[in-house]
Design brief:
heterodimer, A: 231 residues, alpha/beta, Rossmann fold, 6-stranded mixed sheet, 4-stranded antiparallel sheet, 32% helix, globular, B: 386 residues, alpha+beta, 2 domains, 14 helices, elongated, binds adenosine-5'-diphosphate, binds magnesium ion, transmembrane (chain B)
């Protein structure tokens, strides 16, 4: 784990207008996450966990403040630049897998590679590698509906890592899974962090899930409280 | 995998829905193809007609006769360079089903006047003039029945009969002529007016219409006025117009086909535009979350827009091509049974090109709204919250 911060928020404020009310989610929030870290983010529902991931992934913009991720000031990028930036630097894993139902596992994993210059053969190799990492090489030709939730989430992880991004953003990746499948997924994320050096920010409600991370941030009323775990 | 596969998989993810949309597009393009082929066939006469040729018909309607004496009187009108006349024979060969265009004409003047579209050799012209029961036959018609020069054949009329009661006239083929213009149709037969007029049981000394050439197209209006003025208030008043206008009137008699084509095709297209457009809007709305996911992965708004437009274009091309194929089969079958009445019934390259243009327009029009929705979709909104 290097000390160079991969993620740095400085004075980030963010709010939403809901009807007539303006609600503030973050008020001058600071945060640094070094490359190679695995952070669990916990907090009550509505505390802004997903909003935080959206800011880190260039899906949403802060009202004020700076968001620096993987060397870029992403709050200053245009929509088009953000698309390309996300494709190169970020892997997303969602609670509900979000695979394309009409594509096979391999095709789902290949999707992000359509945005690269890789040729057909190279793409196939990358897809094979990613599916092997998540232990699903034998399911390449299966459709999402033919797989369990845990397997679908593993395909989603393969899709998230296939273009080799530095940062994985996971929003309640085990929220829809049973304990066994959840442990499998969490073990996989832990291995990705430990063995491949992926930096991971994972939102979760589950304290057992949080224990897989190196540290946990508690988000409440727009501020973090940190609990470092013995790694 | 590539974008095309993605588009194809998206289109066919709900097979029944895709097939229903394809069938509705197919039907519209099949209608378009067949009607456009008919319209083109009916208007072919208009394309070949000459600007400097005028047609004189009975004012009541072109099926009414004119006295033959008008031939000489029109020839004397100032500005008229050549004039000839013809009489519709209402011909068929052996069976009334085998409708055949036969015209009784004054040989010398008629051949001279229509030699711009038809190729007559001096030998066949001479043989036709000399031989009272002679007939000149166009290449296509001769090929159809395997007729050769020298053949003696009976040609029947569904309108006229001979004084002896027979409805068939025996004629000898004295020449088979080709054409000078690609659009000209050679499924016709010319016989001598003199032979026809002397033997028919009624209508003697009348003709169907006069065709004339003026010294210059600029004189057309003036010549037409003086001819119609000359016969005004007589028992046989005339209406003189350009051949183009005459052919148009002929088409109008058959029903205003161009207008019908436009209305039917227009109605079919508006209907599928609404059905397919609406279905696609709903189909893309169902996929809101997937589009948000694609954008999360780094697909740009433009790329997503192209994927949706590609889908509606593919849909229109599949349905349209299938419909055109059906129209091609239908016109081929119809030209076999109707070829005599409506020569030139086929899907021309022009019709195919227009159809492809319509497919692209349809694809873009039905994809526009859903594609823009997808383009504008914000990821956070598309993913829902949770
Ligand atoms: N696009 C939005 N428009 C309006 N309000 C929003 C939007 N996104 C999130 N919010 C609100 O911001 C708050 C934080 O949302 P979120 O980050 O999804 O919370 P969490 O993931 O911690 O449950 C909630 O009150 C939510 O309703
Ligand atoms: Mg959330």
């Amino acid at each position: 784990m290097s000390d160079l911060p991969l993620v740095r928020l400085a004075g980030v404020s963010k709010g939403f207008v809901k009807g007539k009310d303006a609600i503030t989610i973050f008020d001058k929030l600071d945060l640094a996450i070094p490359a190679g870290d695995f952070v669990a983010v916990m907090g009550p529902s509505g505390s802004g966990k997903s909003t935080l991931l959206n800011l880190l992934g260039g899906i949403d913009r802060p009202d004020t403040g700076e968001v620096q991720v993987a060397g870029s000031r992403i709050d200053a990028l245009s929509e088009g630049e953000l698309s390309a930036w996300r494709a190169a630097h970020i892997g997303f894993v969602f609670q509900f897998y979000n695979l394309m139902p009409m594509l096979t596992a391999a095709q789902n994993v290949e999707l992000p590679l359509l945005l690269t210059r890789l040729g057909k053969a190279d793409r196939r190799r990358h897809v094979e590698t990613a599916l092997t990492i998540v232990n699903l090489a034998d399911r390449a030709k299966h459709y999402p509906r033919e797989m369990s939730g845990g397997q679908q989430q593993r395909v989603a992880i393969a899709r998230a890592i296939v273009s080799d991004p530095e940062l994985l953003l996971c929003d309640e990746p085990t929220g829809d899974l049973d304990r066994t499948s959840a442990d499998e997924i969490l073990g996989m994320l832990k291995a990705l962090n430990r063995d491949l050096g992926k930096t991971i920010v994972m939102v979760t409600h589950d304290p057992a899930a949080a224990r897989y991370a190196r540290r946990t941030l508690h988000l409440d009323k727009g501020h973090f409280e940190e609990k470092e775990l013995a790694a | 995998m590539n974008d095309f596969l993605l588009i194809r998989k998206n289109l066919f993810r709900k097979k029944l829905r895709a097939i229903l949309m394809i069938v509705s597009i197919l039907v519209a393009f099949a209608i378009f193809g067949v009607l456009a082929a008919f319209e083109r066939a009916f208007n072919a006469g208009e394309e070949v007609s000459e600007a400097d040729r005028l047609v004189v018909v009975n004012k009541i309607n072109f099926t009414q006769p004119l006295p033959i004496a008008y031939f000489n009187r029109v020839a004397a009108v100032e500005g008229v360079r050549q004039v000839t006349f013809a009489n519709w024979f209402g011909g068929y060969y052996q069976d009334p089903k085998n409708f055949t265009v036969v015209m009784a004409v004054e040989p010398e003047s008629y051949l001279k006047l229509i030699s711009t579209e038809y190729a007559f050799t001096p030998e066949m012209t001479e043989a036709f003039v000399r031989n009272r029961t002679g007939a000149l036959v166009g290449e296509q018609l001769a090929a159809k029945w395997g007729w050769k020069v020298g053949d003696r054949i009976p040609i029947s009329s569904s309108i006229f009969s001979q004084k002896n009661g027979s409805t068939a006239w025996d004629v000898t083929i004295v020449g088979i002529f080709g054409k000078n213009k690609p659009q000209a149709d050679t499924t016709l037969m010319l016989i001598q007016y003199a032979y026809f007029d002397e033997t028919r049981s009624f209508g003697k000394d009348t003709i169907g219409w006069l065709v004339l050439k003026t010294a210059s197209p600029a004189l057309n209006d003036q010549v037409a006025k003086s001819i119609d003025g000359m016969f005004a208030n007589s028992p046989y008043e005339t209406a003189t117009d350009t051949e183009k206008a005459f052919n148009k009137a002929f088409v109008a008699q058959l029903g205003n086909i161009a207008l019908i084509v436009q209305l039917v095709v227009g109605a079919a297209f508006v209907t599928i535009l609404m059905i397919v457009g609406n279905t696609m809007v709903m189909a893309i709305r169902e996929r809101t979350r997937e589009i948000a996911v694609l954008k999360t992965l780094g697909f740009s708004g433009g790329r997503v827009l192209r994927l949706v437009l590609g889908e509606t274009l593919l849909l229109a091309l599949i349905g349209g091509t299938a419909g055109l194929l059906l129209a091609w089969l239908a016109t081929r079958a119809m030209s076999q049974s109707l070829g005599n009445f409506i020569p030139g019934l086929s899907l021309s390259p022009g019709i195919v090109a227009a159809a492809i243009g319509f497919m692209v327009l349809l694809g873009l029009a039905t994809g526009l709204v859903p594609a823009l929705n997808a383009f504008r979709l914000r990821i956070a909104d598309g993913m829902g919250r949770g």
